[in-house]
Amino acid sequence: MASELDGLPVIATRREEAEGFLQGLVSKSLGWARKYSLFTYPFVTACCGMEYMTMASARYDSDRFGAAMPRFSPRQADLLMVVGTVNCKQAPILRRVYEQMADPKWVMAFGVCASSGGFYDNYATVQGIDRIIPVDVYVPGCPPRPEQVLDGIMLLQKKIQNQSHKLIDRKPLPVIAGGAGR
Amino acid sequence: MSKAVIAALVERFPDAVHAPYEGVGGDDCAFVERSRIVDVCRFLKEDPALAFNMAPYITAVDYLGATPRFEVVYNLLSTVHNKRVRLRVKVPEGPEGVVPSVTSLWRGADWFERYCWDMYGIPFSGHPDMRRLLMYDEFEGHPLRKDYPLRGRQPLVAEREVHDIFRGPGPASRD
Fold first, then answer.
1. Whether the predicted model's global pTM rises above the 0.90 cut
2. Cβ neighbours of B173 in A, within 8 Å
């Protein structure tokens, strides 16, 4: 069969075109669905948590962006919000939480401590959670204003819309850090 | 009135308490011999005229270059007489610098002494649970010592490679 298809490049191209067109539609609609139903897992470790509460509650209301539902199990979440300072003692916990989340998943670094370690350039603090897990959106600020966080959510939504989504993704899982630590 | 505490201490322990002075803020301070600290503290706690029934803060100081190198500082409070006193104990570096624990007097001294062990490496004898308080068990060294490197991080998980120092390790290679 394969040899017959090899002799018919025009038909194969049309089929690829059709599949690509369908995949484009599927990707767009899945992206649209996924960007408006972000279930967040708040990994709150520090004072940014107060700002997270403000952002999630009625005045700023992240529910307007579909990102209101905090799930306290990483297995049910799409968006990992790392809110606050992560130190070396907590890094294995954060990585475990990230690995427990089901694909597709996104990560937001909430505040400067999560983004870069902030002013904690010392013996105990991880210099940004992107040393441990991949990050999609960085929200600066100490702590960030709720508007900044909402802007970060909107940026993430734009990013999700532009990503390619498949009905069945057979891509191999990315290795986020070589080896199991030690 | 505040002189009375130090006067009573020096009178009771002439060989163990020396060099009393008035510290910043008017607190009474004195240096105490390391081997007698439990006796001095027991006297301070159990004498009804003093009744220092609380140890709000016990910490350590690293005087790098001086001998002996460390000092353990006991801040004591009498809630009966509203008095404070500060005792300083000089501690040499290494395993011979063992300080007798005061957890038998104040149960709250437990975590303070564990903190001193964790951050400065000062061992306490007679402590019920001599472990690190804040850092993890795999951590080597004592981070608040003056000769510990400032950025001496000891990560527990392998860190991702930083390709671009201005942008960090970057996002996942999902797209």
1. no
2. 134, 174
Q: Where are the beta strands (DSSP E) in chain A?
A: 40-44, 79-83, 106-110, 137-139
pLDDT digits (tens, 9 = 90+) for B28-44: 889 999 999 999 999 99
Q: Which of A104, A123, A164 sits opposite B143 (nearest CB)?
A: A123
A89–B148 CB contact, under 8 Å: no
What CA–CA distance (Å, rounded) separates A34 from A40? Answer: 12
Compute CA distances A146 → A116, A137, B112, whole Å.
19, 15, 38
**What's B140's DSSP letter?**
-
How do residues B82-104 score in pLDDT, each as one tens digit?
Answer: 888 999 999 998 888 899 999 99
CB contact at 8 A, A144 and A48: yes
Please tell me which of the candidates A88, A127, A178 has its beta carbon nearest to residue B156. A88
How far apart CA B60 and CA B41 sit, in angstroms, is 17
At residue A96, what are phi and psi to the nearest 5 degrees?
-65, -40
Question: What distance in Å separates the CA atoms of residue B23 and residue B74, rounded to the nearest whole number?
Answer: 13
Could you give the CA distance from residue A129 to residue A46 in angstroms, rounded to a whole number?
A: 14
Could you tell me which of B122, A92, A69 has the C-alpha nearest to residue B114? B122
Instruction: In whole angstroms, give the CA distance from residue B40 to residue B105.
Output: 11
B60 strand-pairing partners: B72
- Was domain B2-125 assigned CATH 3.30.460.80? yes
Taking the CA atoms of A98, A102, A103 and A109 in sequence, report the sign of the dihedral they define.
negative
Q: Which strand (E) or helix (H) includes residue B12?
A: helix B2-12
Domains defined along chain A, listed by start: 40-160 (3.40.50.12280)
Buried b (16+ CB within 10 A) or exposed e, A30-45: bbeebbeebbbbbbbb
Proportion of chain B in helix, strand, coil states, percent, rounded to 5? 20, 25, 55
Q: Domain-by-domain residue ranges, chain B?
A: 2-125
The model's pLDDT over A119-174, given as tens digits with 9 standing for 90+, comes to 888 899 998 888 888 899 999 988 899 999 999 999 999 999 988 888 877 777 66
Whose structure tokens read 């060294």? B141
